[in-house]
Design a protein that fits this description.
5 helices
Amino acid sequence: MTRSKMVVIPFVFTFAALILMSTAPVVHAGEGGWWMNEEIQQKLELSPDQVKNIGEVENHFAGKLRAMKIEKQKAYKNMIRHLDSETLSEEDFVKAQARMQAVYGENAAASANRWKALRSTMTLKQWKNLPAAAPKVLQLGSISTSFRGKVRLGSPPAGGK
């Protein structure tokens, strides 16, 4: 193994470990998720069983959605790397584009499944009041690219830019 590989490989593993450790931990029912907020519980008129069930749904999807967040960042950075290269290979671009489409599709599917599971724990009235009571719960995360080369996750800014 070359000296450069000996230096780079531990760095890559360390970087990956830091990313994984920096993601938010799973919030268990009773530890402060949005569903544990008393004001939201009152607005939605959630029963104790519903609060417990919502916590189980959120915990079930938390790991998958965190992993999807990391995959979206990687797909975005890969696309930018191809677009910033001296020679833009059509084949490389198409592969990067397909990866972005796959990752975003998987993220949308995971979010939809989470929403379906949440809906099954609530009455129709509670579900319809959820956006007003807890606005961020039903938002689909997207990558905002306001600063070239940096990735910020969150809702797109007003105006869709």
